[in-house]
Structures are given as C-alpha cells and as structure tokens.
Design brief:
There is one protein chain. 22% of the residues lie in helices and 35% in strands. It has 158 residues and is α+β, with helices and mostly antiparallel strands. It has one domain: Chorismate lyase-like (Chorismate lyase, 3-Layer(aba) Sandwich), CATH 3.40.1410. Strands 1, 2, 3, 4, 5, 6 and 7 form a seven-stranded antiparallel sheet that branches. The N and C termini lie close together (6 Å). The relative contact order is 0.21. The structure holds the ligand C=C(O[C@@H]1C=C(C(=O)O)C=C[C@H]1O)C(=O)O. Ligand ISJ binds next to α2, β2, β3, α4 and β7.
C-alpha cells in the first residue's frame, strides 16, 4: 500500500473530519442510502461476535464532497447495544460526529481489504472495517474508499 493511501486507510481518528479537511472548499455531505433493521451478513455478525440470526440496525451512507461520493460506508449495530442510543435519528449527520464524542470510545483493530467486493454500484482500491465499542454499545463500521476519491485527490491506484 502506498504511503498516501496508508495515511487514509490506517487512520484511527474520525474519517469524517479528515474528509472535510481534504475536501478544502468542497461541501461535505453524508447521503443516507439505507437505514433499517435487518440481518447482518455472516462475516459482519462474526466480526461483532453476534449470532447470525440476530437482527441488527443497518446503515448505509455515501460520504460526498460536492455531491461526489468519495467513501461508501455500511455500519452494523447489534440491537441489544442500541439501549438508549437514538441512532435512528442520526439522519444525514455523520455517525462519527456522535461516536467520537463518546468519552470512553474504544476502537478495535482495523481490517483492510484491497479491491474489495465492491459496495453496490461503487468501485475503489481499498476498504477497511473496525468495531467501535462504548459501554454496552458496539458498531461495526465498514468503509469503502472509491475511485472518485482517488481521482479527485490524485491518489495512486494502490
Ligand atoms: C465513524 C465515522 O463516521 C463516518 C460516517 C458514517 C455514517 O454517517 O454512517 C459511517 C462511517 C464513517 O466513515 C468517522 O467519521 O470516522
């Protein structure tokens, strides 16, 4: 992986904040694509230590700069962890804007994939995922860095 991509893929702070900074004069926007209760994919349930049959809160967004998606994200929250969290009300506010305000937030190890099975209708060189935990709350955050981000920032292909 090139150092230019490593700085993005291996970062452990808020991706939202990094995108806003890198976007310069471009407007940052979270476009909500889907948000519902559903069954996680088998590998997602495994990453969360969740029985596959258990329902979870699923959220899919595109993180856009001037309406151009740079990152697609899919997050999975086990229902029993939603106790007291009103994440359904997030809408088009960034999940990160809530997550990184939690005082005792813990982020697990980052898993990285190159040329991941593309997120529906999006292609890109790298994807990553990690589990954030805060008290009884857990969320698996999966982020797909897109070719449009690579082009707009002049990043290398790998
Ligand atoms: C976890 C963060 O939140 C970002 C925003 C997301 C959302 O609004 O659904 C999902 C993944 C992240 O890229 C972050 O900013 O680091």
């Amino acid at each position: 992986m090139s150092p230019d991509w490593w700085r993005w893929v291996a970062s452990r702070d808020s991706l939202t904040a990094r995108l806003v900074a890198a976007g310069g004069q471009r407007d940052f926007r979270v476009r909500l694509l889907d948000q519902r209760l559903g069954r996680p994919h088998r590998d997602e349930a495994l990453a969360l230590g969740l029985p596959h049959t258990r329902l979870a809160w699923l959220r899919e967004v595109a993180l856009c700069l001037d309406e151009r998606p740079w990152v697609m994200a899919r997050s999975v929250v086990p229902l029993d962890g939603l106790h007291g969290q009103r994440l359904e009300g997030l809408g088009e506010r960034s999940l990160g804007s809530w997550l990184f305000r939690q005082p005792d937030l813990v982020r697990g190890p980052l898993e990285v994939a190159d040329h991941p099975a593309s997120f529906p209708a999006a292609r890109g060189p790298w994807a990553r995922r990690s589990v954030f935990r805060h008290r009884r709350f857990a969320v698996l955050v999966q982020e797909y860095f897109l070719d449009s981000m690579m082009d707009d920032l002049g990043l290398p292909s790998r």
